[in-house]
């Protein structure tokens, strides 16, 4: 396969698999047990927390291990509503499905959820944000980069508005951490969600970073994670996550170097497909984007048709968020950006990783036109 669905998940790096196996074999004790077997695990947990904290630019005590970004997002949102009187949340319109669905449930329970609209190029409408970010909000939540379009959101500007209003800021940084440099202290956020499986780590583990001094209600009661997240720690997952961070921190390439290499491959893919397939339209082309993400449509060919055909030639991609795939609903984000529904259903996302090669990109530039060839004459591009 040529795997171009890395925004859905990435292949665990060999170092990650080794760290997980080692943990399962040699440090399977409960890190909360005071006996020697538990203490071996405790030491691993402390070391992994320190590695992850260093990579994310925060203090070890600011790291709360969770089962992934979905849980981290839920803890941020639900905790915000429990800790004070406010029943009003501000979120960005392009949030991940885990947030959108939660927002809908909460709205049904009388919580006011105000969405910062996205502009036609997929970024956030800062004028609208200015009007919505007021002291009466319990929390503002935005994403650092969108999982579908790859658009980088104006987090610094949102952080300044939150600071002025005295409202805590949560950032879902799941798609940008590992792909671009990140530092919790500099981010301006009070809470940040990260997931290990997007950066060559394992699934089912992530963190919620929480600024020192902030008190936040737990989702799961229990004494682990300083009473902030109950449940025996997923030590193999956490050790795998730490190995993924260590790999990025100490690899032969720095993160900016990898980002530049991946962006060059993405740009080559974008140019190659545009040249080969008339009617190719790239979504959010005018906005700053993640280096690895290309979201596009080939004229008006339905995404399912494209994906089926290219998979037969060994190219794996998706129509957008894996978490909301499988339905005939178009991407809510594209619709919010003003893309007509029928064209939004044509959206195909190609997302690269640091393991993607130039040779793979060259093959994809040949394979996609070959797979679509018979269809290219049939469809007319309605524009837009
Ligand atoms: N937020 C974003 C932006 C994501 O892309 C994802 C993963 N698709 C998640 C949250 C959920 O992460 P997890 O799979 O770790 O629950």
TrEMBL record:
InterPro entries: Aminotrans_V_dom, Cysteine_dSase, PyrdxlP-dep_Trfase, PyrdxlP-dep_Trfase_major, PyrdxlP-dep_Trfase_small. It catalyses: (sulfur carrier)-H + L-cysteine = (sulfur carrier)-SH + L-alanine. It comes from the Bacteria. Gene3D superfamilies: 1.10.260.50, Aspartate Aminotransferase, domain 1, Type I PLP-dependent aspartate aminotransferase-like (Major domain). Its cofactor is pyridoxal 5'-phosphate. Signal peptide: none annotated. Keywords: Iron, Iron-sulfur, Metal-binding, Pyridoxal phosphate, Transferase. Pfam families: Aminotran_5. GO terms for molecular function: cysteine desulfurase activity; iron-sulfur cluster binding; metal ion binding. Residues 2-363 form the Aminotransferase class V domain. Belongs to the class-V pyridoxal-phosphate-dependent aminotransferase family. NifS/IscS subfamily. PANTHER family: CYSTEINE DESULFURASE (PTHR11601:SF34), CYSTEINE DESULFURYLASE FAMILY MEMBER (PTHR11601). This is Cysteine desulfurase family protein.
